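Practice problem: SWIB domain-containing protein
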Amino acid sequence: MYSSRVFRGCRALMAAAKAGTRASAPTASAAATKPRILSRPNGIMKAVAVSPALRKFLGVPEVSRTDAVKKIWEYIKLNNLQVSLSLSLNPSDHIDATISLLPNPANKREILCDGKLKTIFDGKDKVGFLEISRLLSCHFVKTN
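Answer key — structure tokens:
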């Protein structure tokens, strides 16, 4: 039944494996006859109440953290708020440089906040994409 290749010839392991297959067979059939209980979402998938500012932005009184982040990213992409800083120096290599905010598909690490995003991101003009989760955490009402 079990080859010595699997257990490298160890008779104790082969005997334990044979005994384990007989014992596990009835439990597998018993588990198949039990009805499956649908679990409720928990953790970041659980819908929780949100602050008034986030409620106004999303339009719903409670939402899961993952759905909130998805909706914010949809808004950012829809309004083309992802930009990268590009620094262009003058040809004469003077110290004065012009900094422009241009959309750059290669490096979209910063998000320019418009009026709606400023209300949920503490009035910041620019937010890094890694900051979004941290800035949103204060908008979820903690319940015990």
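Discussion: The chain has two domains: 4-33, 43-139. Students who identified this feature from the tokens alone can consider the problem solved.
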